[in-house]
Design brief:
alpha+beta, 14 strands, 19% strand, single chain
């Protein structure tokens, strides 16, 4: 679980860096798109201003195009359009009108004669007509038939065209540009961050006991100080761990010899005390005390041996290569070693062995299986049953020990794999290291130690599975 949290934190940090890079790259593009739209509008406004001046310049020519009154009363005035006016009116989005001061249309389009200017100054405005936006200019002009109102209308006002087609001309190109830029930046950011992501994966995929140095040359120049600091930290932690391993190994090794001598002496005292006549109460008390001393000596000797096994398991990962191990032969040897202890408690110790071979350290697997069987013998009541199994299942080799003892509650199965942990109220001798050693050896072999109930829900079944 802690490793999963570290992975989530590293992923969050990398994702945050990726988001920051995207924002820092996309925000300037968005600002440029907005500035571009503003300049487009300013350019359209400038063109529109030029258009207004052009329309204003054509008004006198339109007025001069009136050359006389109609031949009959109420007939429209006679007009001879000047070439610039003809050229303007040839466009599809153009219109004109000649109106009297009352707003009556004399020539042109009637919808342009809505009102007359109140002064002699030209009047500009925009108007919607027939689904188009027109830029219209009106002005009073003196002509041969008197003062009239001349009107010109242009349906190609750049400002209105820009406002109407902003999605196509501005927004859509900018959106396409930003989308392409986002994909390009994502690819670029992924490529730029790949060495950092590879470094994260290299650290996350490591075993907690793998403290070897990272390759600094494989990292970008900006990340090398971080890799150098990590390597220095790995060296310090490795040195400290190695010092602790040496201390435990040396202490356990030094304790073995005096403990072995003490145990032999106490065993002899216990045999002598048990051989004395039992009538004297003092003799019985002495025999009981010697028996307690013998049991304490046995536990201390076993603790020293288990500590030494743990230390050797820690060192084996880097020191020795794995070799093929015959699990069936191993299980048979362990059975022979524990037959006497099982027989003393009238326990039926059996073997169900199938052919299986895995790559590993034979002496460590022997230590793991021996601890499992020793635990089963200790905690299985008299006249119980213990079965040692080995074989292959779904391409995986396994060692298994099943008993019909008190078992371990489901809530405690994770805890009993910790060093020196014992379930409260457990009877019998033990240091809380047997299952911890087996779990350590399983992980060393890239396998796992699984605890579950025995047959019919009784007892405990411990399975050590390893890749074959």
């Amino acid at each position: 679980m802690p490793r999963r949290r570290r992975a989530s934190a590293a992923l969050g940090m990398t994702s945050g860096l990726r988001r920051r890079l995207f924002v820092l790259l996309l925000v300037p593009l968005l600002l440029l798109a907005m500035v571009n739209a503003w300049f487009d509008y300013r350019a359209a406004g400038s063109v529109a201003g030029q258009q207004d001046q052009r329309l204003l310049g054509l008004l006198p020519l339109l007025a001069d195009s009136i050359i006389g009154e109609g031949k009959t009363e109420g007939a429209p005035p006679v007009m001879l359009l000047a070439p610039p006016i003809e050229e303007f009116l040839l466009r599809r989005s153009s219109a004109y009108a000649v109106c009297d001061l009352d707003g009556t249309m004399l020539r042109g389009d009637a919808w342009l004669c809505d009102f007359a200017p109140t002064s002699a100054e030209p009047e500009f405005h925009s108007e919607e007509e027939s689904g188009a936006t027109w830029r219209i200019v009106r002005q009073r002009e003196p002509t041969v038939i008197g003062e009239v109102v001349v009107v010109l209308a242009d349906g190609s006002d750049p400002r209105q065209q820009w406002a109407r087609s902003i999605l196509i001309k501005v927004m859509l190109p900018n959106l396409v540009l930003l989308t392409i830029a986002a994909f390009a930046m994502r690819w670029a950011v992924e490529r730029a961050l790949k060495p950092l992501l590879d470094l994260r994966e290299a650290v996350e995929s490591r075993s907690p006991r793998d403290l070897s140095s990272l390759d600094e040359s494989a990292s970008p120049e900006e990340v090398r100080p971080l890799v150098h600091s990590l390597n220095r930290l790995f060296e310090l932690v490795n040195a400290q761990a190695e010092s602790q391993r040496r201390f435990v190994a040396d202490a356990a090794h030094q304790l073995r010899t005096p403990l072995a001598g003490l145990q032999a002496q106490v065993e002899a005292w216990a045999q002598a005390a048990n051989a004395l006549p039992g009538g004297d109460r003092t003799v019985r008390l002495a025999a009981d005390e010697v028996t307690k001393l013998r049991n304490a000596t046995r536990r201390t000797s076993q603790l020293a041996n288990q500590l030494l096994a743990l230390s050797r398991a820690d060192a084996a990962m880097h020191a020795q290569p794995m070799q093929p191990v015959d699990l069936k032969s191993l299980a048979e040897d362990i059975l022979q070693q524990h037959l006497d202890a099982a027989a003393a408690k009238h326990i039926d110790l059996g073997l169900d062995a199938g052919p299986a071979q895995v790559n590993g350290h034979e002496w460590l697997l022997r230590e793991a299986l021996s601890n499992l069987v020793d635990n089963a013998v200790k905690y299985t009541p008299a006249r119980g049953t213990i079965t040692i199994r080995c074989g292959r299942h779904n391409g995986t080799g396994f060692l298994e020990v099943e008993d019909d003892g008190p078992g371990v509650a489901a809530a405690e199965r994770h805890n009993v794999l910790q060093r020196f942990y014992r379930v409260q109220g457990t009877q019998g001798e033990g240091n809380g290291l047997g299952l911890a050693i087996a779990d350590e050896i399983a992980r060393l072999h890239h396998g796992r130690l699984a605890l579950g109930p025995g047959s019919d829900g009784r007892g405990l079944k411990v399975t050590l599975s390893m890749p074959g």
